[in-house]
Amino acid sequence: MTVGSVGSPVIARRGAVSGPDPGKQSGAAAGTGLLRRAAPRHDSLIGPLLVVPPLLLLAGVFYYPLGLIAQQSLTGDSGPVTLDAYATVLGGPLFQNALWHTIEIAVSATAGCLALAFTLAVILAFIPFPGARLAARLIDTVIALPTFLVALAFTFIYGSAGLLNAGLMDVLGTTQPPLDFLYSPWGVILAEITVYTPFILRPLLAAMSLIEPAQIEVASSLGAGTMRIVRKIILPAALPALLAGGSLCLLLTVNEFGVVFFIGAKGVITLPLLVYDKAIQEFDYTTACVIAVVNVALSLALFTLYRVLLRGLAGSRAGMV
Measuring CA to CA, which residue among 32, 28, 193, 215 is closest to residue 106? Predict the structure, then answer.
């Protein structure tokens, strides 16, 4: 009895010593909570710091030269800020001719890319044939090719001394090339269609892959013809992709330089080619900077249109899912 009475306080004291201290537990928990609350503050400081180096690099590589171009277009070599250079250049026939050719070639090439890409997408997506996947991959490889390489290929095939004209002159017995379209706006347009059609074909195939085959089967069983199925089912589903791809193609063709330069079409001068002529050949940097600023403004407007249409395409896909 005495042992029990003496031992029990010892056991109680041992339990008190060996057991966890509620005060220490609450202190540790409070310390952990402080660390957890401090971590987001630490991350919030690191995040903006990580953005600074890319912004500085972008400012030095892109925005600073662009600012110099804008400054040169407004001040000339060393004069005050004025818009006289813009009035002279924009009102001149050379700039207006280049602007007209740029818009004409870009719109025509974009329309051709839309028509060709939609036709190819319908065939590849809904008309199964052996080698369809291989054909799609081969079309995709055009994206990886430099634009001037396509222009050189067109010269070797369709040029005045190209393979096609040489063969036709031998067959027809003529001394003049029967095909003389390459060194005209049509040659530039056809080359740009070849280059930029895959940029529209890829989003079109992605959009058409979301169409349920049962829709086409039901429409066909109800007596709908091929053109009606294309018009009522395929075209509405592919319209957002057509708009987004077409706006991207228009943006790229407006700024195309390699195709126009290497084909060397007679009398065909676009805005990028005019910038090259003024800056590199004539050393008229003020005029070149004015034309470059106008070209950049046009490109930014088209890029904004592309982003808006791309956002609409993403929303339509989410709605279909």
Answer: 193
